[in-house]
Amino acid sequence: MDHQMFCYQCQETAGCTGCTRLGVCGKTPETAAMQDLLIYVTKGLCAVTTRLRLEGVPVSREINHLVSQNLFVTITNANFDKEAILARIRETLTVKEELLSRLSDSSFLPEAALWNGREEEFAAKAAVSGVLSTKEEDIRSLRELITYGLKGLSAYTKHANALLAEDEETDAFLQRALAAVLDDSLTIPELTSLALETGKYGVKGMALLDQANTKAYGNPEITRVKTGTRNRPGILVSGHDLRDLEMLLEQTRGKGIDVYTHSEMLPAHYYPAFKKYPHLAGNYGNAWWKQKEEFEQFNGPILMTTNCIVPPKDSYRDRLYTTGAAGYPGCRHIPGE
């Protein structure tokens, strides 16, 4: 088959079978390839961290966060910036090499744990490391099901981590499971069992995030949200990261600037802690997929804290900012915490 890329991780995918020339989301083959490689080197890193834990060597929170962020970057409509993804690949390879040096026994590690290619080798390696590198379809499907479940888990843990909530057991499972999809000896029943275990930890990750959110912002309550606009300058915030919204509200307090939520950020209004900000003016717009027309009509800056980004029109590209796992080429990125 003449595939320039292959991605079938979301409901947008072409023909319900997979995007092979350009992502329906707008992802280019070049960006898709680097996302495939980022996943591959992260699997290798996880094989090393899993071996370290077996040897009784602790794995730092910073490494756990690196793994979660790498996975989060590759979810649908989150990050289209090839250069940002390349930077994460380079960082992951550097960290992996340092951790390898701590192992007392590096025998029988998978190839992904030992590969440390140069940047000019990245494209060739990506071409043989993506979804279709697993030839047996049932094994491939189970591996991808597990991987996509772990991507969702990483999103929950990343948001919880931003609120200083950690769960070493969940991080250790995430890394063990991601490393396991490299194991050619695992059978269909064993992979099915791992997929079910991934679901169990997905629920655990949701609970961790819920606890972090309610501890920081209170229990959600039924709330009437304004959908109009005021006559002051405004900033529009989309995505899921409540901590990013909180920081922006603190920075704009008393400055004569209103802040509006969009789409996935709407639930912020339900939390009591956000009601203390009189300049949290309401929710602007509708679902994420209508953002091209809505962002064009909004006259102020727009901050994307996570997915979902739709490739922006030129009319508002210079007003679109990203932070955290989100990214788009040509848009300014704010590293955040």
Reconstruct the topology from this structure.
Blueprint lengths: L28 H26 L6 H13 L8 H19 L10 H4 L7 H6 L9 H26 L5 H13 L7 H30 L16 E5 L3 H11 L5 E5 L17 E4 L7 H7 L4 E3 L9 H4 L2 E4 L8 E3 L3
Parallel strand pairs: 1-2, 1-4, 2-3, 4-5, 5-6
Task: Summarize this structure as a short list of keywords or feature phrases.
6-stranded parallel β-sheet; single chain; Substrate Binding Domain Of Dnak, Chain:A, Domain 2; alpha/beta; globular; 337 residues
Q: Would you mind describing this structure in some detail?
A:
It comes from Candidatus Caccovicinus merdipullorum. It is an enzyme of class 1 (oxidoreductase). Pfam families: Prismane. InterPro entries: HCP/CODH, Hydroxylam_reduct, Prismane-like_a/b-sand, Prismane-like_sf, Prismane_a-bundle. Keywords: 4Fe-4S, Cytoplasm, Iron, Iron-sulfur, Metal-binding, Oxidoreductase. It is globular and about 65 Å long. Strands 3-2-1-4-5-6 form a 6-stranded parallel beta sheet, covered by helices on one side. The chain has helices at residues 29-54, 61-73, 82-100, 111-114, 122-127, 137-162, 168-180, 188-217, 242-252, 291-297, 314-317, and strands at residues 234-238, 258-262, 280-283, 302-304, 320-323, 332-334. Helix 1 (29-54) crosses helix 7. The longest helix is centred in the middle third of the chain and has 30 residues, at 188-217. The chain starts with 28 loop residues before the first helix and ends with a strand. The chain has 11 helices and 6 strands. It has 2 domains: 14-215, Up-down Bundle (Substrate Binding Domain Of Dnak, Chain:A, Domain 2); 234-334, Rossmann fold. It is α/β, with parallel strands linked by helices. It is 47% helix and 7% strand. Helix 9 (242-252) links the parallel strand 1 and strand 2.
